[in-house]
Amino acid sequence: MHSVQKIAEGIIDREGGYVNDPDDPGGATNFGVTIHTMRGLGLDLDRDGDVDAEDVKRLSRAQAVAIFIQHYFKKPRIDLLPLALQPSVFDMQVNAGSNAVKILQRLLRNCNEHVSVDGVIGPKTAAATSRVFKRDSHLLVDAYGIARRNYYFRLADGRPASRKYARTRGGGKGGWIKRAEEFISPRFHMTDGEFQRRVSSWA
User: Which pLDDT tens digit goes with each residue over 28-39?
Assistant: First the structure.
């Protein structure tokens, strides 16, 4: 099992460097850390009295790792989850905030666990996850990854501007789908045909 530091480094590798895509609600982003996160943390790196895109550009990889570990792993208490599930939930927490935990909680409810879908890992969610994980550890990890993939598809279904993150210009799997499938066993990866059928309704 990789350390939290290694998992955070892997997230940064997937996120890449500085981007400011007008189609991305996150706004200016560097190493996966958005300008909104930096404003929330008061990271005025150029000390000019505000937090803007220039501050995002100045963010270092080491600072991004520290932010991820403290605010996207420790603060949401992902450490309370089974080790095998932590990398995927941590990665999704960075990518989608509290939706990462809500996806897990919906899965737990589908497994007849009575938990609230509130995006918070408390004692009940942690205990329910442990029970389901003990019944079939591999199934829960794969099911979570598949639920992540479905979440991305639904986002793209409802927001055409986001489809470029789920499907490449050439028509293949986009970054969102590939990212989800990094945490899914190969036997559950979508074939090219399955993917094409899933996105066939998109313009």
Answer: 999 999 999 999
Query: Residues 117, 201: one domain?
Result: yes
Domain count, the chain: 2
| Domain interval for residue 179 | 81-203
Give the CA distances from residue 49 to residues 43, 64, 179, 183, in Å, rounded to whole numbers and listed in that order. Answer: 10, 21, 36, 41
CB atoms within 10 A of CB 181: 18
Give per-residue pLDDT as tens, 128-137. Answer: 999 999 998 8
Q: Among 75, 92, 113, identify where a domain stops.
A: 75
pTM over 0.85: yes
Tell me if 64 sits within 8 A of 32, measured CB to CB: yes
